[in-house]
Design brief:
It contains nine helices and 13 strands. The protein is of the alpha/beta class. The strands form three sheets. Strands 3-2-1-4-7-12-13 form a seven-stranded mixed sheet, with helices on both faces. Helix 4 runs antiparallel to helix 5 and helix 5 crosses helix 6. The longest helix has 30 residues.
């Protein structure tokens, strides 16, 4: 199998990495394609097939669609301009560097906004949220949900604890009651996709936690790199991924397991969305690729 198709399939099947990591890995497919076929006639055909393949590979992650669309535009433009291979590789590396730095910029902005708070809740596994807690000075109390069905919150809890913070791991279904018990001040979470109007897609359970905690006066704050913004999608038409039923129910029986992976949190449940360019408050008007210039 062609290496770039292997990477496409890897991204499609991945269950252990976040949206930013998968966006970076997706760009690797275009780098591999360019390195293998630069100057050959079949490049354009393979480029179109790869671009089409990534268009729907992970419908709940706009960062992959945005990153691969831009990577494809870079390759097509440089082919049209008869640029050397080194130029296109350098441009794709610049795109990856932009994505990697955006996480750090969001975390810095978030740490400035939230430094005075002492008790946090987070849900699922987010490298951006981890970067936030790496930036926060002083010991914080962080309540981490285990996040069913794969319990990736356990990994999140261990990593945050290694930074010197106090961590309590809870069942995700107990988030509301645990927030009352421990006096949670902010619910912070990463984002897989954000819509222009402030609807955000994240691991299933996020919406119900944010909506429930608004009753307690807890600030629900999404950390979102601008590459994750989908300007065109509407909340009512979002495609949310459903994974293998066996993750919920291993044995084959008359019960039908519906393993929904993502949900949509409405803007009214959010206190803020923090991006590279600062803190956004309702009403939201989000834009993708903040600060990025096509090379």
């Amino acid at each position: 199998m062609k290496k770039w198709i292997e990477i496409l399939n890897e991204v499609k099947e991945d269950k252990s990495h976040g949206a930013l990591w998968l966006a970076l890995r997706s760009i690797d497919a275009f780098t591999c394609l360019a390195e293998s076929l630069w100057g050959l006639r079949e490049l354009e055909r393979e480029l179109n097939l790869l671009t089409e393949g990534f268009r729907s590979v992970r419908p709940s992650m706009a960062s992959i669609r945005n990153a691969t669309r831009l990577a494809s535009e870079i390759v097509k433009r440089y082919v049209h301009e008869s640029r050397p291979l080194n130029d296109v590789i350098e441009a794709l590396l610049k795109l990856k560097d932009y994505i990697e730095k955006s996480k750090i910029e969001v975390a810095v902005k978030a740490s400035q906004e939230l430094s005075s708070l002492r008790v946090f809740l987070t849900h699922s596994l987010s490298s951006t949220v981890m970067e936030l807690f790496r930036n926060l000075s002083g010991e914080k109390l962080v309540i981490v949900t285990e996040s069913r069905p794969l319990r990736e919150g356990v990994v999140m809890a261990r990593r945050i604890a290694s930074m010197g913070h106090r961590v309590k791991l809870i069942a995700d279904a107990s988030a509301y009651q645990a927030s009352k018990i421990f006096g949670v001040e902010a619910f912070v979470f990463g984002v897989d996709t954000a819509l222009k109007d402030g609807h955000v897609v994240n691991k299933v359970g996020t919406a119900q936690i944010a909506i429930a905690l608004s009753d307690l006066g807890v600030k629900s704050i999404a950390l979102c790199e601008s590459i994750k913004v989908d300007e065109e999608a509407k909340a009512e038409s979002l495609a949310l991924e459903v994974k293998e039923p066996k993750e919920l129910l291993e044995e084959v029986c008359e019960i039908e397991a519906f393993n929904l992976y993502f949900d949509v949190t409405p803007p009214k449940a959010l206190y803020a969305i923090i991006m590279e360019d600062g803190v956004h408050k309702p009403p939201f008007n989000l834009r993708p690729f903040t600060g990025f210039v096509l090379p």
